[in-house]
Amino acid sequence: MLEDADPTTNEKGWRRFGPDSVERGMLLALSETFGTELRPRSIDLGDGTWLEIEGADDSCSILIQIIGNQGKFTSQLRNKVMADMFKLTWLRTALFPESRIVLCVSETAAQVFTPAGWSTKAARDLGIEIWLFADGKLVTLI
Question: In 3-state terms, what secondary structure has residue 35?
């Protein structure tokens, strides 16, 4: 079961991202690129546990995590990238095996994906699309 409406604003799915947030801009750009409405979702895992995902279409055929961090690259940011890759992979494996999984990153977070880096190879091997959002535009990294 999906939950996607913000009861305080009646604005479908935007409870997590403000109108001027980088993350909202990233999700809107992905929506336009993929030709479908993508919004933050809460997914009921069926055992009383809920999982938050930063973007999905109504059928969860596209699952998205977004990392809009700006500024200095840190080991905590690298760990967030890895955690989001794991979350997407697990969610596809456990609940939505036919889904397309996408990680959209800022220029800062994109530093994880070097040409010879293991995280780049892992993303390719696991079928995780990596998109860079820079200057209001999307570019495919992987």
Answer: coil
